[in-house]
Every structure is written in C-alpha cells, then in structure tokens.
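Lab notebook, bench 4. The sequencing result for the construct came back, and we need a structural model before the next group meeting so we can plan mutations. Quick request posted to the team channel:

Model the 3D structure of this chain.
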Amino acid sequence: MKPINAVARSAIIKSAILISSLLLSPVPARAQNNNQPPAETPVQPLDLAAMSVARQVLTTGAAMVALGDSEGVAGQFTDDGELVTKSTKNAGPPEVQIFRGADQLLKWFKIVEGLRGFTVVNNVEYARLVAPDLLYITGTLELTSPEQQTTGLPFTQVRVQEGASWKIVNYQIIFSGG
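Done. Here's the predicted structure in token form:
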C-alpha cells in the first residue's frame, strides 16, 4: 500500500472534521403529533477508548499550560498542524486567525508563559475515534486565575496518532466577550 501524500492526508482530515461535526450535532426528531415538541436524538454512546485517550492527552496539555511551557504546548502539533482562533465580541463579525506550522504555533503559544500560576483544566465533552489513528475531541478549556476568576473557552481538536503520540492536526478555540 502506498503512503498517503500530504494533500490527500489534508483532504482526509478536513473531511473527517466536517463529517464529525455533522454527525455529532444534535438533530431534533419529528414529533409524534403537533401537540408535542420535537425530541432530540439521543447522544451516541461514549467511545470509551477515545474518551480515555482524550483525557490523557488533554491532561498532559493542561499541565504544560499551567507550567508556562510554550514549547511543550506547540510541540503537541504535527509539523503542519494548525491553530484556528475565533474571537467574538458583543457586536460585529467574529475575528478568525489561523496559525500553521511550528514557527507560527510557537510564536502564538508564547502567551502560555503568562499563564504560570493559573489552574488549567481541559473538560472533555465528547471524544470519538473517527479512524483507529484519528481522534476528534470537543470540550472546554477552563483557566482559573490566582484571583479565582474562571474563563471557559470551547474548543475542538483533531489528533492523529504518530507512533505512541497523539499529535494535534487542527485545534479550534473560541474566545468570546466584550
């Protein structure tokens, strides 16, 4: 079997992100009659293996953030990995930025150095192995300052297994507020 080239790999990963997003979105079921509100389709059973891997890799990442280890955090990405940040304000369109590759990621993650002393928790809300070596995770990054102010940042990650490591291919995080 021939190895997958970079373009095909990128297309497969982007397709997996899109398909996972569509599959994991709750869809209302049709009501039995017009007097009853539609019921939501039940959430699929948890993929226990995916949840276990997700908790492990996100706990490691949270510890790196709490230590201010920007190089360690950036090192969790594949060579061509990307970070997508979406900032929303009270009014106006969201601002989206994309950081791709080791140099851009390391530069962006220098922000982590200012988080020493924060309590950092990654809450896994959903995890699924889309393929044996492709992990989809959604959750919330909670940052609690030394003054006990907590901020929750929703995120989505796609990770690919490289040897014994689960590297981030795509990490999307949302910053909201005024």
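The helical segments are 6-24, 48-66, 70-74, 101-108.
Will bring this to the meeting.
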